[in-house]
Write a structure and sequence with these properties.
By secondary structure, the chain is an alpha+beta fold. It is built from 4 helices and 4 strands; from the N terminus they run H-E-E-H-H-E-E-H. The chain has one domain. The mean pLDDT is 89.
């Protein structure tokens, strides 16, 4: 029977786990607060200082501030869906996605700081856009990256956090973890 039970953890392991958990939750809290505040402040500045549809060139043929409102999801997907169905669907999907991210975050193993940070960025970005969706029924976008007439879809700070979080998460899952697993089996 003793072989089936785990060895009792020493005080050092308990302290390390507790410290990691505190740091992990501090990470998601700090990242969320910073990203959401920065996202909402920049959107509010654009909303107050620009008219919808107008743009200001920052770097010719590369960066513009172009104020638009996106009623759909990423890249305007679903923007043509009927108003009565689109908003509840997008809010619901956002909430489910955020709950999934929180679940993955809570389950993150000790020491997976990059994984926790990437999930924090994705969560914070989703929350920033969810706030717009709930209060305005649409998301305010304003960063327009392009090379001459080839434009990336207009986005905002929350979208940037989501994108950076996804890139970091992909790096962690596709490159770092396989390397660590390979070292563990060597």
């Amino acid at each position: 029977m003793r072989a089936l039970c785990k060895e009792p953890r020493g005080r050092e392991d308990i302290v390390r786990t507790t410290t990691w958990d505190k740091g992990k939750y501090l990470t998601i809290t700090a990242v969320t607060v910073v990203v959401v505040i920065l996202d909402q402040i920049t959107k509010e500045i654009i909303d107050r200082c620009m008219e919808l549809g107008h743009y200001i060139t920052i770097v010719p043929n590369f960066v513009d501030i172009h104020y638009i409102r996106n009623t759909g999801a990423a890249f305007g997907i679903m923007s043509r869906l009927a108003d009565g169905a689109r908003l509840p669907f997008l809010v619901g999907v956002s909430i489910v996605a955020m709950l999934l991210i929180l679940y993955l975050f809570i389950k993150a193993e000790s020491g997976r700081k990059n994984y926790a940070f990437s999930l924090s960025l994705i969560f914070a970005g989703a929350l920033g856009n969810l706030i717009d969706r709930i209060w305005l029924g649409e998301v305010r976008d304003f960063i327009d990256l392009h090379i001459y007439s080839l434009h990336w879809p207009v986005f905002n700070v929350a979208d940037s956090a989501i994108t950076i979080g996804i890139i970091l998460l992909g790096y962690e899952l596709l490159i770092v973890e396989p390397r660590m697993a390979k070292k563990g089996t060597s």
